[in-house]
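Entry 14. Structure prediction run on the chain below.
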Amino acid sequence: MRILLAIDDTDNLESRGTGAIATLIAEGMQQKGWGTASFITRHQLLVHPDIPYTSHNSAMCFVAEIGAGCLDQVIAFASDFLDHECAEGSDPGLCVAVLDRMASAPELIAFGQRAKLEVISMPEAFALAGRLGVHLSEHGGTGQGVIGALAGAGLRLWGNDGRMKGSLEIAGPGVLLRVADLLQHPNVEAVRCVQGGVVGEDDLVEMGEKPKTVMRDGASVLLVSAAKLDGGAVSWRTLPRKELRGY
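Output returned:
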């Protein structure tokens, strides 16, 4: 069974972030033998005076493959974790969507896209979750995080939004790797030039500091830009952090 699990608004300025909470939920689920989780993606939502948020208003989401009889256990575990581990003053929300049971994937995707542009209410989020058959629950404070959690699931499902939490543990800054070797990493499904150039499997990529992938066309993509090696040979470099902020 393939699920999306998304959370939002779990932290305050002094606490560990929502990404850390998502990591602990994913690890706990795996340790209990209920399934395996993919990498976590961060999804930027609308920043607006009418939307309370800690620092950036971003949701976290991961895809997991779980046993057919484990759904209730996963939801209960994630819910209990948020109830007890989220920071004081936070407004946590949890969304768990079973991909092959949703009434309308396009509606969930559209909700996520709107949440990047519009202020959306909690009643609307709960109404949509009910229509789609998606679990949505609040776990403290105002519960406002349900909006971001539902949006995060929709954006991950869309496959064209978000960047991975953390970075690829693959090589240090300045190391040159063949594209074919990069594609052997479990979290790199494609390597693409941000300017649209063709990247060959034998091309070399200079690794930057803390490289990470972004979601594009449903794949985890390592974006690169054109660079030149000593001697003038054409190569590629991974995008620095400041260039990834728009994803």
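The first strand starts at residue 2 and ends at 8.
Filed with the rest of this week's runs.
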